[in-house]
Amino acid sequence: MAEFDKKRFQVFDTDLNYLMTRKGVAGPQTENTVKIGPPWSVAFLRSSDMIVIHGDLFSRKMSLITNDGQFIKKFSGHVIDPGSLFVKTDRDGHVIVCDEGDREIKVLSSDGAKLLQSFSAPGCNAVPSCVFYHRDKFFVSYWEIHHVKVFDGEGKFLFNIGSEGSGKGQLMYPRSLVVDAFDNLIVCDSGNKRLQMFTQDGTFLSSFGQEIQTPWSMTICFNGDLLVTDYGKHCIYTLR
């Protein structure tokens, strides 16, 4: 869990038991180590090592930390200004990054050495906020234009989900998104202080989570529970 204001991230196990906190500098200082700035996004690789996006706005970097938090180094040089990331759960373990520097979605090899894909929506100059990959599709939220764009596995734009507003199926400043065990897309509709559920073709299903003040990021647990961070209340909700 990334805590931007406190300039640290915390690690919990799959039962949500606290494991450790990391901030500042991790590991011995060598020419390969870097300081951890305010964290924006954290994800685990298949190796159980972690990638952390950290730093001040417009000067963020991606760094790799071993699973015990004792060593840190630069992850990839292919990204200009990373905003958020997603790690595929298949055997390739590719890392998908929303690059705010050139406003593209970038797919990296699991070690960050190779840039495998780079794409954006035609005619769109908005910054991609968050990305989720599922069954050969990329689902990407766009905070400033209030909708989710869907791309195929080759990065070709397919269609939009949602539109600006506060009605059913409309979005206001969407952030994180996930696909649940029933193949439904769930979106943090942060401006409307709720979660919204759609089919993968964009059909609105329901709104829920109105007790959450500012839904910001989400993840699906192994048991199917949905964890949602509330930026306004500084807490995490577990939804079943």
Task: Tell me what you see in this structure.
Strand 14 and strand 15 form a beta hairpin. The protein is mostly beta strands. The protein is globular. 0% of the residues lie in helices and 48% in strands. It has strands spanning 2-3, 8-12, 18-25, 35-36, 39-44, 50-54, 61-65, 72-74, 82-87, 95-99, 104-108, 115-119, 130-134, 137-142, 147-152, 157-161, 174-179, 185-189, 194-198, 204-208, 215-220, 226-230, 235-239. It has no helices and 23 strands. It has a 4-stranded antiparallel β-sheet, with no helix packed on it. Strands 5-6-7-8 form a 4-stranded antiparallel β-sheet, with no helix packed on it. The protein has a 4-stranded antiparallel β-sheet with strand order 9-10-11-12, with no helix packed on it.
Question: What would a concise description of this structure say?
Answer:
The protein has 240 residues and is mainly β. It has no helices and 23 strands. The chain has strands spanning 2-3, 8-12, 18-25, 35-36, 39-44, 50-54, 61-65, 72-74, 82-87, 95-99, 104-108, 115-119, 130-134, 137-142, 147-152, 157-161, 174-179, 185-189, 194-198, 204-208, 215-220, 226-230, 235-239.
